[in-house]
Specification:
The chain has 233 residues and is an alpha+beta fold. Helix content is 29%, strand content 42%. Pfam families: SIMPL.
Length: 233
């Protein structure tokens, strides 16, 4: 959340007569106002988490098996420069026999995290990786660049709405003008991403040329509120 504070008051010592006079003056004709601006914005970024999970009685062999598949996946990802790929959480832990609680085998898991604004390229990469990997989750959000652009536009809109309300109240109280005492501009966003758990469904059946899945990224709501105080004159 971004917070911007605009104040027309001068900070002075409590003992200062100027501060005391200002404080006393603010006891009259003071109104608190809030104005908002919001917009539904199409999600333009995809995030996905894929994982591989293997079992082996020998931990060294298990590590080699997982490392080989991870290296292959990273090599495949290089064909898609539009897609950011990085390794995620990795773990290895023992699996015990439930009857006699003896060590049965070792299980290893490793994750790949995918992020891109190119939905087609990301979908194609995920389809290829699903030959060895499973998809844990897929989500959509607004990119930082798009969010910043929309927030800046909404900050201006919220500020104009604040001024309109301030002017309306000034007229309704039969005053000639007003002074801005302080103004807080806050940005907030609540997105409703489409989260898909793909443990039971794949983007495409394993084939020589995987087909990318069409995606519906949905929308997120970005809001900006301007709240502050005016003094009628």
């Amino acid at each position: 959340m971004r917070n911007l504070l605009v104040s027309s008051l001068l900070i002075a010592s409590v003992s200062s007569p100027v501060f005391a006079a200002t404080t006393e003056a603010l006891n009259y004709n003071v109104i608190n106002i809030q104005a908002d601006a919001s917009r539904e914005v199409s999600n333009d970024q995809i995030q996905a988490v894929l994982y591989i999970e293997k079992n082996n009685k020998q931990p060294a062999e298990l590590a080699n098996q997982i490392n080989t598949l991870m290296n292959q996946a990273l090599a495949t990802a290089k064909k898609y420069p539009q897609v950011k790929v990085k390794t995620g959480a990795q773990s290895t832990y023992p699996v015990y026999d439930t009857d006699n609680k003896k060590l049965k085998e070792w299980r290893g898991r490793a994750e790949l995290q995918i992020e891109s604004r190119d939905f087609k390229a990301a979908s194609q990469l995920i389809s290829e990786l699903q030959q060895n990997f499973q998809t844990d989750s897929i989500g959509f959000s607004i990119s930082d660049e798009q969010r910043s652009k929309v927030e800046n536009e909404l900050m201006l809109e919220a500020s104009k709405n604040f001024q309109q309300r301030a002017q309306l109240l000034t007229q309704s109280w039969h005053k000639t003008s007003y002074n801005l005492v302080n103004l807080n501009v806050n940005t907030n966003s609540s997105y409703r991403p489409i989260m898909m758990s793909a443990r039971t469904a794949k983007f495409a059946e394993v084939a020589a040329a995987p087909m990318a899945q069409d995606m519906n990224a949905g929308e997120s709501k970005i809001s900006v509120s301007a709240n502050g105080t005016i003094q009628l004159k």
